[in-house]
Amino acid sequence: MITGGIGPCRFGYYGEMERQILQSAGYNYDVVTLEPPNGSLLGLAKRIRYLAGTNNSWAQIIKALRFAYLKSVALDQVEDLIHAARPRLPNSMETEKIYEDAKKLLAQTMTVKGVQETVRWVKESIRESQEKVDTPSEGFNKPLRIGIIGEIYTILDPYTSLGLEEELGRLGVEVDRSIYLSGWVGNHVFQGLAPGYRSIKSYPGHAKPFLPHFVGGHGQETVGAAVKFAREGFDGIIQIFPLSCMPEIVAASVLPRVQEAYKVPIMTLIVDEHTGQAGMQTRLEAFVDLLERPRLQRGIGQTRGEVFGVGGR
Q1: 165 with 299, same domain?
Q2: Are residues 179 and 293 in the same domain?
């Protein structure tokens, strides 16, 4: 099974290309591609039935899909809480341990109640950690906020992004993503029947003054998310995508206009197998220094704040 892409996004060809290569090598092999169903859920239903086999009823399949979706939403909630906690809790190892333990709990639980209790446990663990922090006597303000936009895989996979979100948290930055897994599944695979943790339906509307048409992949959504982050007052925006991703290249050519219109700094990171951790870290540190400069000039400074008082968490 593999996910797919539509439009100029070349990822949509990968599944068929892999199938042909393996079949020509003599393997009895088939590939099921899960991709946006283009307005009809019938094709998606056929693929799901094929994957589930004939021994499972549709009632069992729907129950399993619903539970998997709830787990996906819960994981997105946990990651959003961790994004807020990283710049505010002084012990980064403790924060990452909460995150890793939460992922293990979500993987192990087989009940809706267990999923809900895991999210509550994360909130309580973060709150307990924050209560140990001594509030500084001067300027206890919010940290910098950076929005992450770009191609979905490089946003969601920490290995591909070289730990982008964790590194920004270490630098005292609160991160927010343009896209979460459950949001993509709900809007693209299930056609909005399940909006996910963070809906992405509004992005094409935000992008319209700068990129009024679909360009494949997440190109238009990237531009729309940048506009949304800028309007919400984020200090900076980082676009990340794999080398030669055509929809994101189109978006990158449009983002300077967004930057000029909203006076928000935007940095583009392009990653491939040769991208090094040291180079990534240097660029992030320089970008954060750039964003901190006007705040320091205004006397705001870089400080920690209340985790659950930010972003409606």
Answers
A1: yes
A2: yes
Domain identity same for 79 and 39:
no
Residues 200 and 278 in one domain: yes
Q: Who contacts 118 (Cβ-Cβ below 8 Å, separation ≥6)?
A: 74, 78, 102, 105, 106, 109
Global confidence as pTM: 0.85
> Which position has the token pair 């220094």?
289
Domains in the chain, number: 2
Q: Please tell me whether residues 116 and 34 are part of one structural domain.
A: no
Q: What's the pLDDT band for 307 if we cut at 50, 70, 90?
A: low
48-87 pLDDT, tens per residue? 888 888 888 989 998 998 999 999 999 999 999 999 999 9
Instruction: Say yes or no to pLDDT of 190 above 50.
Output: yes
Q: Are residues 303 and 226 in the same domain?
A: yes
Residue 46 belongs to domain spanning: 2-55
CB 181 within 8 Å of CB 79:
no
Check whether 19 has a pLDDT greater than 90. no
Q: What is the pLDDT of residue 299?
A: 67
Task: Give the per-residue pLDDT at 192.
Answer: 67
Q: What is the pLDDT of residue 101?
A: 97
Based on the domain organization, do 199 and 83 belong to the same domain? yes
Confidence grade of residue 294 (pLDDT, cut at 50, 70, 90): confident
Asked whether residue 151 falls in the same domain as residue 93, the answer is yes
